[in-house]
Each structure stands twice: as structure tokens, then as C-alpha cells.
């Protein structure tokens, strides 16, 4: 295959493309101020529209650069592949700074699901050590699915209306040390993948869907009357969930009192600061990080591998007897055909 040689003018043109325009074109949601918007799916990744050489920076990893580097990072492409994307004639852009972030439209679920679930289940059960009964229950009730590229789709539900309000995608394999992750376009801010089991008295917040399922696996017999919520990063979905909690209780004529809230973020500095900055002053909110590793999946994998090396019974590892989730039935949407 002949390697394309790009002129300096073409490289400069690609570098100067507005990342706000590019994000709009590729369906990457952004939010925040006009001068420094951030990605919804990675709120530590900030855009700098006025700086051609340094159009983006991800503070959590100290990575950044121009538009070419952004496409390489987000799309896992080589330099030549990134150039091809940015110079594609179908990508219409004004080649200048766009000052205002994209106006969000209502969420519309992009249904690229397939009937097969083998790749998703293999990843969750064998790679991430999630309990297979939990995986089967959530798949049967439409909370998780597999898409045409063998990714896992975690579907977000507004528990007040029982409507889908967003979705996040998790790859089942790694490329260059990173798994593909994406939040569907226009997913509702203030929400994330969440499971409500009974009438909630306690609410648990996690950084990711995988962490949420890991915690549920380790506490499988102790899930009644609890609400498990993934923040998909360190986004403050806590306030919206508390508001929905109060509305949920009011609709059902249940007594409203402050729920016991568990902030189950990672053990790193960002996870601790997230709790200290926003919630430490509230007596009903507690910082509950994992006791092993950085996140809840680290702890689950470590304990599962330890269990598999021992002769202890399955019941000695998991707390309590098996129980199924009591979740609303998901009404399957018509599958869209894509080329």
C-alpha cells in the first residue's frame, strides 16, 4: 500500500481545524464554557479553541496537542489515518474557531444492538469477573447489550419515567493499552448507568459501570432497597439522583428522609478530592473506596483470583444467598440498520 505524503500546508490545515466542529461532526458531546468546553465523556479533557497548537489537554493524564493529536488519541488512529479523517471532503468545516459549544438535542438511543451477547458476556464474566447471573439478568431485562462491533452497551434509565436517557459504550478488547469508551451523543447530563432495586434507602455512586457491577458482585446477597449509580467518570450526578430519589418517594407516598449516600470512587487523589470537595460536610454522605487496588474491579478481580486458588466454597466468598434484581422490563426499540 502506497503511503500518502502530506505537504506542510495540508498538515497546517489539519492542525487548524476547530475541535468543536470536529466533535460535532463525530458525535462527541461537549459542555461547559464557550472559551474552554470539556468533553462529557472525559470531563478532565478540556478544549482550547483559541490555541491552534494546543487545542486540547487532558489533565488527568497530562496529554494534549493539536487537532491531529486529538483524532489520534480519541479514535486510536495513526498520523496518516488522522490526516485522512481531518482532510476528508465530507467533513465540512469553516476552518476557524467556533466560539460556542454545540447546543444539545434530546437524547435519541442509537440502536446498533445485535442478538448475540457472547463477546460482551465473556468480557464481563471472564475478564472483569462479574457474576454471570447478574450479567444474564441485566441482559435479559435490557440494561446491557452487545453492539455490532462487539462493544458492551450500558443503557441509562430515568427511574421516574422508566425511559432511556443515555448510554455509554465499553470496548471488549484493548488497543495500545486502552479500551474503547464512548458516551452516546446527547445522553442526559446528570444521569448515568444505574440500577434501582426496591425502595431505596441507600444510594451508591461509582466512577464507572464496571465498578458498579463489581460492587454488586461482591455484595450479591445484600442489594435490596438500594440504588446503584455510575457517574461515568467524576461527574457530579449526585445532586440529580438525590432530586430523583425525593421525587420517587413522593410519587409513592413513602416517607422522605435523607438517604445514606456512599461515594464509592477510586482510591486515587482525584477520587478522594471529589468526596472532600463536595460531600464531606454532609453527615449522611460517606466515602467508601475499595479496600484493595485502585477501583472496585481491581478488588473483585483480586478476591476472585484468591478464591479460585483456594478450596473455599463459593458461599464463603459472596455475602448472603442469591437474589435476582427486581428491575423494570426494558421495552426493546426497533433495531436500526447501519452500513
UniProtKB/TrEMBL annotation:
One GO-annotated biological process of the protein: DNA replication
Domain DUF3991: 123-193
First and last residue of the signal peptide: none
Superkingdom, taxonomy of origin: Bacteria
Pfam families: DUF3991, Toprim_2
Alphabetized GO MF terms: DNA binding; zinc ion binding
Matches recorded under InterPro entries: DNA_primase_Znf_CHC2, DUF3991
Protein name stated in the entry: DUF3991 domain-containing protein
Organism from which the protein derives: Aerococcus urinae
